[in-house]
């Protein structure tokens, strides 16, 4: 296929996929939603509202965040909704909670062995997928029955318990605990992002789990080297499997492969 024709196919594929998956629109929607939440929290003045200190609590330091996170997770009756991002200066991946005497940091993001009666919905971003143990952590979540989805845009670190209380990390050493009705802002943000996210791994179809992971990481923007590191293989193996997937899809570029994968529920 000539270069001009290949470029035309890429443009046509991108145009055809726009109604189903628009990264630009998702980025804009997510940025607006997160900016709105951040602005609301920045403008919040508890002293201006009678009993306002019951709505917002600041958690300063890693241990305070760990304690509040533990309370949210194990106090949840029915649901936990989570954003997980990379750059985890508060907790390594997979996330664990330290013993009270330890200094290991913890981020807003529940443990995989948390309340077994609660339904977990987790959205991760590209930065999280680049963490060294990310795929292992997500595989454990799936094995525990958690629902996991992916977005390509950076997420704030967030956990919402039962739609009634939320913890938002506003900077590495500081988080805000929101009670109703302010927790509704975090809930609505989560639901908006969840609707526009894509499944982490689909179980239907003929693709192998490894090929699904390669496609997921490719769509999230990871390099072949980063993908190979996650899978414990070589860049050459990743390139060979991507080439094989392109042959199956009958396309000549990775852009076309991504479009085909989205249209045919490969990811």
TrEMBL record:
The protein, known as: Helix-turn-helix transcriptional regulator
């Amino acid at each position: 296929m000539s270069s001009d024709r290949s470029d035309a196919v890429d443009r046509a594929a991108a145009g055809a996929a726009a109604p189903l998956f628009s990264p630009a629109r998702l980025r804009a929607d997510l940025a607006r939603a997160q900016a709105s939440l951040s602005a609301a929290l920045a403008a919040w003045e508890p002293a201006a509202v009678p009993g306002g200190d019951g709505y917002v609590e600041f958690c300063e330091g890693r241990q305070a965040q760990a304690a509040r996170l533990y309370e949210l997770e194990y106090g949840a009756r029915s649901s936990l909704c989570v954003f997980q991002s990379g750059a985890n200066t508060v907790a390594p991946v997979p996330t664990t909670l330290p013993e009270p005497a330890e200094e290991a940091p913890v981020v807003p993001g529940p443990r995989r062995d948390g309340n077994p009666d609660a339904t977990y919905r987790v959205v991760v971003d590209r930065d999280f997928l680049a963490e060294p143990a990310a795929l292992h952590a997500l595989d454990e979540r799936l094995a525990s029955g958690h629902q996991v989805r992916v977005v390509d845009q950076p997420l704030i670190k967030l956990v919402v318990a039962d739609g009634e209380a939320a913890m938002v990390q506003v900077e590495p050493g500081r988080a805000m605990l929101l009670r109703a009705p302010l927790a509704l802002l975090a809930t609505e943000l989560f639901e908006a992002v969840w609707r526009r996210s894509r499944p982490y791994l689909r179980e239907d179809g003929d693709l192998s789990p490894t090929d699904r992971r390669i496609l997921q990481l490719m769509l999230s923007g990871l390099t072949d080297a980063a993908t190979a590191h996650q899978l414990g293989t070589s860049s050459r193996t990743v390139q060979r499997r991507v080439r094989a997937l392109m042959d199956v899809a009958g396309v000549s570029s990775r852009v076309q492969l991504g479009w085909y994968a989205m249209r045919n529920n490969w990811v």
